[in-house]
Design goal:
The protein is of the alpha/beta class. The protein is built from 14 helices and 13 strands. Bound molecules: pyridoxal-5'-phosphate.
Length: 384
């Protein structure tokens, strides 16, 4: 038997939605995009949502449209897209350490790394659990910094019932492994109407979809770039797929939480060797990934190898941390010498398989394989 790390959960609902767009004869962004954006904004409790082709595009658009060119505080314990967006926008990443419980940016280290050049903070909501966003939002407000939430891994996660991505500019991913998927896709959310307009314009070649006075004096075919533009559009087929997935978000997140609870029960018997994921009070975890930590870090890699050999597709998110990846080492942006928790977590985390449509026998296999490997390693250690 094989237990894959994750699988998209596609049903007849998604198939029908995609076929409907294919049959409609309109493949460009259209009604499905409008509806997806409307429902997404409503769900988050924000005024604007913009469909885009990826979360990387959303992060870049947030920075570019806000004219951020100075220092941007980001975690190194993330997918490299967070940092790439900062460099692509012409700004400078400054690495900030994480707190050890849920791997979110450490508010104390944020305060320590703010300089007169700091313009923005990009937080990451890791694996389905929000960072300490209320504290961080206060810091951002106090220092006049733009707050961007890389919520690629957390759609539906909340603090005090308030949604991830609704505190600052929300950037979401619909890549194949996320809470909902369109294969590739993204969404930017904001309460700032001007920002939403700018992002809509830059995402379609810099040609504004809004008619201005000078434009209405022109013939209807007259279209011109009013800013530097990109093509970040989400095709209508993918918007329809996203909308169908989004209609099943609560169902899928409930299942994710169910399987995570069972995995927690099974794995909680070895607190001496493992840390299981925690859900802080007032937070809701939506388990985009199920991440444990192994206390003996020199066992980490061999456990992942063993599990894979036994058909349990374990993995590691993320190693190496971004500041140690080749491109970023070459550039040595500041803050890289003070990330002890990042280094510790990068060598102890393990992602175990989890997806909504997994089954009880998958959970059994993951738990048994993990625990028996640990027993074996412990015995080997004794014999030495
Ligand atoms: C997946 C991911 C991204 C990138 O999302 P894309 O839609 O593939 O661009 C960015 N940040 C984090 C934290 C991610 O996990």
């Amino acid at each position: 038997m094989q237990v894959p790390l994750t699988r998209p959960y596609i049903t007849k609902v998604e198939e029908e939605a995609v076929m409907e767009v294919l049959r409609s004869g309109w493949l460009a962004p259209g009604p499905a995009n409008d509806k997806f954006e409307h429902m997404f904004a409503n769900y988050l409790g924000v005024s604007h949502a913009v469909t885009l082709n990826s979360c990387a595009s959303a992060l870049f658009a947030a920075l570019f449209a806000s004219n951020i060119r100075g220092e941007v505080l980001i975690p190194s314990f993330t997918w490299c897209a967070t940092a790439n967006a900062v460099v692509a926008a012409g700004a400078t990443p400054v690495w900030v350490d994480i707190e050890p419980e849920n791997y979110g940016m450490d508010p104390k280290d944020i305060e320590a790394k703010i300089t007169p050049q700091t313009e923005a903070i990009i937080v990451v909501h890791y694996a389905g659990h929000m960072c300490e966003i209320d504290t961080i939002a206060q810091i951002a407000a106090r220092h006049g910094l733009l707050l961007i939430e890389d919520s690629a891994e957390t759609l539906g996660g909340t603090l005090h019932g308030r949604q991830a991505g609704s505190f600052g500019i929300g950037c979401f991913s619909f890549f194949a492994t996320k809470n909902i998927t369109t294969g590739e896709g993204g969404m930017l959310t904001t309460n700032d109407p001007q920002l939403a307009r700018t992002v809509r314009t830059m995402a379609r070649h810099g040609v504004s979809p809004f008619s201005t006075e000078s434009q209405s004096a022109q013939p209807p075919w007259h279209r011109e770039a009013c800013m530097l533009g990109y093509n970040f559009r989400m095709p209508g087929i993918l918007a329809a797929l996203g909308l169908a997935q989004f209609s099943r978000l609560e169902e899928m997140n409930t299942l994710r939480r169910h399987w995570a609870t069972l995995l927690n029960q099974g794995l909680s018997v070895r607190p001496d060797l493992l840390k299981i994921p925690t859900e802080k009070v007032r937070y809701k975890h939506v388990y985009q990934m199920y991440v444990i930590e192994i206390k003996k870090t020199d066992w980490r890699d061999k456990l992942v190898f063993q599990l894979r050999a036994q058909g349990v597709e374990a993995s590691v998110h993320f190693f190496p941390p971004v500041h140690l990846q080749a491109y970023y080492q070459k550039h040595a942006f500041s803050g890289h010498d003070s990330l002890p928790v990042t280094l510790e977590k990068a060598s102890s985390v393990i992602s175990l398989p989890l997806c909504p449509q997994m089954e009880e026998q998958d959970v059994d296999m993951i738990v048994k394989a993990t625990l028996s490997n640990l027993d074996k390693f412990a015995q080997e250690e004794c014999k030495k």
